């Protein structure tokens, strides 16, 4: 299961203005779990609305210095979902405080049970 572009405002960063003003963070997640295709029952899968809510909760939650820590918190939360065996999380910080022109800053981590 893949969710891309989950966007929320967070207050992560090492600079006081990042913690004070906040900025958008964009998160992509890939969840690996046994996919049941013979039933049509939500109980046999992972609810992607709940996954998106988990991601948003971390991004809008406790400020962290590093997006690496944000990605790790998201991965831990998603791995706690019973069926999920492996997760890949990418956290994008499109308004990172860099003086040079850039397209994106992101960090990607993979975690498994």
Number of helical runs? 3
Kindly state the percentage of residues in helix. 25-40%
The residue-averaged pLDDT reads: 96
Give the helices and strands as they follow along the chain.
Answer: EHEHHEE
Protein structure class: alpha+beta
Query: Which fold name is given in CATH as the topology?
Result: GTP Cyclohydrolase I, domain 2
Main sheet characteristics: 4 strands, antiparallel
CATH class: Alpha Beta
Tell me the strand percentage band: 25-35%
Keywords: Folate biosynthesis, Lyase
Pathway: Cofactor biosynthesis; tetrahydrofolate biosynthesis; 2-amino-4-hydroxy-6-hydroxymethyl-7,8-dihydropteridine diphosphate from 7,8-dihydroneopterin triphosphate: step 3/4
Pfam family, one: FolB
Organism: Tessaracoccus lacteus
Folded structure, characterized:
This protein is of the alpha+beta class. The two termini are 17 Å apart. The protein has helices spanning 16-21, 48-59, 67-79; strands spanning 2-10, 23-32, 86-92, 106-112. The protein has a single domain, classed as GTP cyclohydrolase I, C-terminal domain/NADPH-dependent 7-cyano-7-deazaguanine reductase, N-terminal domain (GTP Cyclohydrolase I, domain 2, 2-Layer Sandwich). The longest helix is centred in the middle third of the chain and has 13 residues, at 67-79.
